[in-house]
From TrEMBL:
Species: Vulcanibacillus modesticaldus
Entry superkingdom: Bacteria
Record keyword Cell membrane present: no
Domain VanZ-like: 7-86
Keywords in alphabetical order: Membrane, Transmembrane, Transmembrane helix
Coiled-coil regions listed in the entry: none
Chain ranges passing through the membrane: 6-27, 39-56, 68-85
KW Ribosomal protein (keyword) present: no
InterPro entries in alphabetical order: VanZ-like
Record-given protein name: VanZ-like domain-containing protein
Amino acid sequence: MDTMFLIRKLGHVTVYLILTLLILRAMKKRKQSHMPKSTYVIAFVIAIMYAISDEYHQSLTGFRDGRLMDVGIDGIGVLLGMWVYSRFIQKVYFR
């Protein structure tokens, strides 16, 4: 497997992990100690819709192409972001 391919895909995962952390942080209420599961579902939908729109816009350019596989890889980043937020950030910083 090509090293640059792996680096690009790791970039997708990292960007969507960070995006999901930011979405969840933006959705957190000030005095809320525990985030409801519905908030995670909404954050997931927002991030995946962004991934789909990003790939669609790439398909409109002449030098890039949109790939469904990239949306799946972005989804891995979203799920990792949700996991990081629920396991570490929410428990440590937002009690």
